[in-house]
Amino acid sequence: MVRTSTMVLNGNLTVQMNQTILQNRKQRKNGHVNGEKRTNFPAAKGVSCRQYSPESFEQAPMYVAVLTYLGFGIVTLFGYFRDFLRAVGLEKCHLAQEREEQKEFVPMYQDFENFYTRNLYMRVRDNWNRPICSLPGPAFDLMERVSDDYNWTFRLTGKTIENVINMGSYNYLGFAENNEDFLKTVADKTLQYGVGVCSSRQEVGNLSSHEELERLVADFLGVESAMTFGMGFATNSMNIPALVSKGCLILSDELNHTSLILGARLSGATIRVFKHNNMHSLEKMLRDAVCSGQPRTHRPWRKILIMVEGIYSMEGSVARLPEIVALKKKYKAYLYLDEAHSIGAVGPTGRGVTELFRLNPADVDVMMGTFTKSFGAAGGYIAGNKELVNYLRSHSHSAVYATAMCPPVVEQIIRAMKCIMGVDGNTVGIQRIRQLAENTRYFRSRLKEMGFIIYGNDSSPVVPILLYMPGKVVAFSRAMLARKIGVVVVGFPATPITEARARFCLSAAHTRAMLDKVLHHLNEVGDDLCLKFSRRKISPRPVLFNETDFELDS
Amino acid sequence: MASGQQWVLVEMVQAFYEAPAYHLILEGILILWIIRLLFSKTYKLQETNKLTEKEKEELIEEWQPDPLVPLVSKDHPSLSYDIVTGPPSHKIIINGKECINFASFNFLGLLDNDRVKQKALTSLKTYGVGTCGPRGFYGTFDVHLELESRLAKFMKTEEAIIYSYGFATIASAIPAYSKRGDIVFVDEAACFSIQKGLQASRSVIKYFKHNDMEDLDRLLKEQQLEDHKNPRKAKVTRRFIVVEGLYMNTADICPLPELVKMKYKYKVRIFLEESLSFGVLGEHGRGVTEHFGVNIDDIDLISANMENAIASIGGFCCGRSFVIDHQRLSGQGYCFSASLPPMLAAAAIEALDIMEEDPDIFTVLREKCTSVYHALQGTSGLKLVGVPLSPSLHLQLERSSGSRDTDQRTLRRIVDYCLEREVALTIARYLEKEERYLPPPTIRVLVTVEQTDEEIQKAVSCIKEAALAVIS
């Protein structure tokens, strides 16, 4: 049941892809439905500059799913048992209680709402919110904390666990750094301006450095204009409502980030969700939408906005941008691309997925991204043509009501962006981008060799390793921390119930030695906990880009 | 009973055997007919409605969407921003002109404070700028924990939680508790972030007239009647009152003691947004609870941003652990956003230190507010909106021309007149189409402790002059 698909990375092929999509439709019309199977792009053969970027989502053996459900079943049953014990007073309830004066109020939380938190999350919550006390660079210091009451409360011991390798932070290009020479401009800005702004952009919070940053962002992305906002999450949630409203349709990928979903919900537009990165699903929805219009009234939609992410943060998959652009052009929809994780992190010069696919940025109507990840700062941007940005400048919720971005953060972004762009002839930025790409390639191929199931695109620095079973998730995270490696694990409800995973974020700042250490420990822990679920045969020497390895199979 | 039933059954079988063949055939046909009627469609909706592929292609060809965004005219009042060069502290350079700042929410003058800057700088040297992760995934720094416990201590509550953006604080907090089907009673003058939070919560929203406790009482009574009709539903419907301490849009204070009475009378929880009153009202700057001497535990949740008095970035919620802790898994802006840059958190801690060390700062601010308030009374053509204690006042046209645009332009001329004479003011900006109850156009006058008496004098006379020159 290996589902592999091949993507062609060549801007010149957009037209051909368009045809392929047309062909696919023709086939369907004749009754030859291909299902998940994707057509090879024949035109790619013999093109010298072609690159393949395989994206795989290997399915686990059946027994794994059964055991996972069983695991959840046992924990849930145990939870009910504990709840029963608490109800009859045999077990002490550690959760904070409502005040006496307000006991008669309608309960703040329903009992079942907190079942999961109380009985499952509490047992394992030492794996999240681990406090750190150093720079979030390639290695960091964790504050040791212990719990005397099975995770109901934590106590900081005052000791630190030093030099833990950081595989969790989104520090893709290593700009989370505290080198005084690099940060000189930021320090100067802090001394000159202080840290706040105390006004919104439309009132008196529009500093000249904001305008400088916006010109730089537009330059960097190769678009006409850009606008920046103080928080990445809010960039989505406060600007989508300015773009679409009632009578508009949003087609949203099922794995889109919460901020996109919130923005879509606040906009009042109709939202339909298509299957993750599934172009058939998207095209079907587009076709239906244009043909049958709005529900009940059957009026045509005012506009259709497709919302996708560049790199999906939990899957490591890359949006199939060439096909999406072809579809959007065919159906006259607009495209909103959230590059929170991809800007700076992919593409030969770090310009994100448009560059990865060699597309013209003008083909994407709304380019959104954040500065939190690759730039080691905070905030977000929206870029596109002049009309879009002018409209946002006058109608964005953020510009009117929220405090403007703080000057030291602005300076950090400017510094990082100039470094990536190689302004004043430095090559540090481009080296870091290459280093990240190399780290990604190395780490991913080694994991595959070891037999882990990993998700996502080969060029994505977000690497999820599937762990499946709830018990293993926790054991994995604790075992890795014991080996001084900080990992991020996520399970239900952030992922589907059977697909709990650990997520590694690679950084250009990781040295080969660090990665080797991580891989070595991963290998051992993987054997100890039986985490190597892959049944794929991969030759020991990675002949990774050999076409025959990626036979299509439906 | 049982034997009787058996007898009926036997009789039926017997009757079946005895019935004539034509009868059975007729009945059989009837049964088949009924089955057919049951399973067939009398009308053929699908077929008449189905489009052929060609028709679909034509529809796709024909459909013309609206442009992504409407064109903004070049002279749209909110398109061209004033450009500020240099720090927007006591003095501010707007469009190249150095002015005394009456336009920033820097009430305590902490933006330009050397101690705050130094603390931020020290933090920068250790932690760099960004946190590169949400709180859950190694984005929790010791500075964050310290700031949270300091805020809780300052406000005398059990717990505090920080957000990385002021606007997202209350906008995330409300939907963390109030869900679909719950009821929120909210003041009409509530600021935009509250409105967005309410919208995200998908709860039933009931607006009461601004600061009108009778109106709120009426709504609560109505709800009580409703609850009597359906007690089962009432038992699971959470109710909240959402108010602001010091209103952003009207510059007056909510009647908190009455609200607390209502709370216990009708068993409704109170959420209080204190972005303007935190660090302003009360003897120690603890906000509107301290101002009225209300027990802070009676308020279920207090939210404020650290972008005004504290002059940093971000926001926080505080209250009892029972309430606040829930946001650590349910506050969207908390869970899914990168955490606050440590240097900004460090700056906020230092600001809190200063506020704790020197509570006189609040007395000074109060005095300045009152003197500005009284001095601005009787400006010809302009009405002062707000209470004497508010550092954020509004100047509104006494007589509106009837057109919002004209009013805006008139006010803008006053602002420009003052800018010429080195007094920086700003027009309060709103999204006119998005606001639930759009406030009238006003000029903001913001008081800070840095403004000297002479400067206040100058500004007041300048505003009066401008009003005379522009309005008459």
UniProtKB/TrEMBL annotation, chain A:
GO terms for molecular function: pyridoxal phosphate binding; serine C-palmitoyltransferase activity. Pfam families: Aminotran_1_2 (PF00155). Keywords: Acyltransferase, Membrane, Pyridoxal phosphate, Transferase, Transmembrane, Transmembrane helix. The chain crosses the membrane at residues 60-81. GO terms for biological process: ceramide biosynthetic process; sphingosine biosynthetic process. One of its GO terms (cellular component) is endoplasmic reticulum membrane. Its cofactor is pyridoxal 5'-phosphate. Gene3D superfamilies: Aspartate Aminotransferase, domain 1 (3.90.1150.10), Type I PLP-dependent aspartate aminotransferase-like (Major domain) (3.40.640.10). Residues 163-522 form the Aminotransferase class I/classII large domain. Belongs to the class-II pyridoxal-phosphate-dependent aminotransferase family. This is Serine palmitoyltransferase 3-like. The gene is LOC115538886.
